[in-house]
Amino acid sequence: MVKAGDTFNIGEICPESGVYRIKTASCKANAGCTISKEQLTIPLVKGKTFPPCKNCHGVIVWEFVKKA
Ligand SMILES: [Zn+2]
Question: What percent of the chain stands above pLDDT 70?
Fold first, then answer.
């Protein structure tokens, strides 16, 4: 059972369809990468893998927010 605040690394399998938020991103320090507000949360379907940063493929730690 996934609960709010649980974190996942990129490449891990999504255990629960829902909304996930960027907790930490390695690319935040990268001047060439700006994560837009729209990119801070994503909907992700159970069984998909957690993605890296869309802009720079940087490492992201995703945090579960709520079920879909
Ligand atoms: Zn990035």
Answer: 96
Cα angle at 23 between 51 and 41, to 5 degrees?
60
Whether the per-residue pLDDT at 1 is higher than 90: the answer is no
Domain that holds residue 60: 7-67
1 falls within a domain:
no
Q: Tens digits of per-residue pLDDT, 2-12?
A: 999 999 999 99
Is 2 a member of any domain?
A: no
Instruction: Output the CA 54–ligand 1 centroid distance in Å.
Output: 6
d(CA 29, CA 49): 24
Q: How far is the CA of 1 from the centre of ligand 1 (A)?
A: 29
